[in-house]
UniProtKB/TrEMBL annotation:
It comes from Actinomadura graeca. This is Thioesterase family protein. Residues 138-270 form the Acyl-CoA thioesterase-like C-terminal domain. It comes from the Bacteria. InterPro entries: ACOT8-like_C, Acyl-CoA_hotdog, HotDog_dom_sf, TesB_ACOT8-like_N. Gene3D superfamilies: Acyl-CoA thioesterase, double hotdog domain. The lineage of its organism: Bacteria, Bacillati, Actinomycetota, Actinomycetes, Streptosporangiales. Residues 34-116 form the Acyl-CoA thioesterase-like N-terminal HotDog domain. It holds the Pfam family 4HBT_3C.
Length: 275
């Protein structure tokens, strides 16, 4: 297993953000965005966060909130300069459908849709049928990954406090996590961004398969939130279901110190590794 160390930039110093803004909706991805499969391809967590940021900021309507985001991964997202645009697909005062597209060199690499809905009245009763999350550990040993993993990007840019299981080991698993760096330099992450940056880790936290022996690629990510999360630390309990001659499905529950706030779903391609 490989122990994580903090990610660094090309000059050898610590990375201070996932993306640097370049103006006009363009961003430079830092090494912190790199996923476990390659230092040249991004983890979909920061990708989802940047798309979610664009959706939140596009023509905001007071009294509404983004309740569901679905991200479609159109191909490997390079650790390079990207552009993000957003538009309203279906306008509405109480319900609106939004879309954001991420491109690299003019080619779409990811897209997201979101339902922005009117926030419920404060007098609505609060119901939660999920068990309370486990306590946040005061500390945990350094996180370990499978030997082939690129551990110096996204995995190191997140702080993990594992409760059950471990990344790269058979799940299900439960972990608390928070980002060590902001999504965009000079900005505080919103609750939606914090949830999205973590959410794509579900298949790693909950995987039943040996990630050194199987090629696993998620084609999409859906995050549905019945309320906005509170605080930096978020808890994820995840599990992966697989079927021969089928595919894999990852589901995860999201919680903060106050309790459950949402769900994650990922559709996963599973295949023999190349070679």
């Amino acid at each position: 297993m490989t122990t994580l160390e903090c990610c660094s930039n090309s000059e050898g110093g610590p990375v201070e953000e996932f993306y640097r803004p370049l103006g006009d909706g363009s961003f430079a991805a830092t090494p912190a965005t790199a996923g476990p499969w390659s230092p040249d391809a991004q983890h979909a967590g920061p990708v989802a966060g940047l798309l979610g940021r664009a959706l939140e900021r596009h023509e905001p309507v007071p009294g509404t909130r983004v309740a569901r985001v679905t991200v479609e991964i159109l191909g490997p997202v390079p650790v390079a300069e990207l552009a993000v645009t957003a538009r309203v697909v279906r306008p509405g005062r109480r319900v609106a459908l939004l879309e954001a597209v991420m491109t690299h060199a003019g080619r779409p690499v990811a897209r997201a849709t979101a339902w922005r809905i009117l926030a419920a009245p404060e007098r609505l009763p609060a119901f939660s049928h999920a068990p309370a999350p486990p306590p946040l550990p005061e500390s945990t040993p350094p996180l370990e990954t499978w030997p082939e993993a690129h551990a110096d990007g996204y995995l190191a840019a997140m702080e993990w406090r594992v409760v059950e299981g471990a990344l790269g080991r058979p799940g299900p698993g439960v972990t608390w996590a928070r980002a060590r760096v902001p999504l965009v330099s000079g900005e505080a992450d919103t609750p939606l961004v914090r949830a999205l940056v973590l959410a794509d880790s579900a298949s790693g936290v909950g995987s039943q398969l040996d990630l050194s022996k199987w090629l696993i690629i998620n084609t999409d990510l859906t995050v549905a939130l019945h309320r906005d999360p509170v605080g930096e630390w978020l808890c994820m309990g995840a599990a992966v279901h697989t079927s021969p001659r089928g595919s894999a499905l990852c589901e995860a529950a999201l919680a903060d110190r106050s309790g459950d706030f949402g769900r994650v779903l990922q559709t996963l391609l599973v295949d023999e590794p190349p070679g």
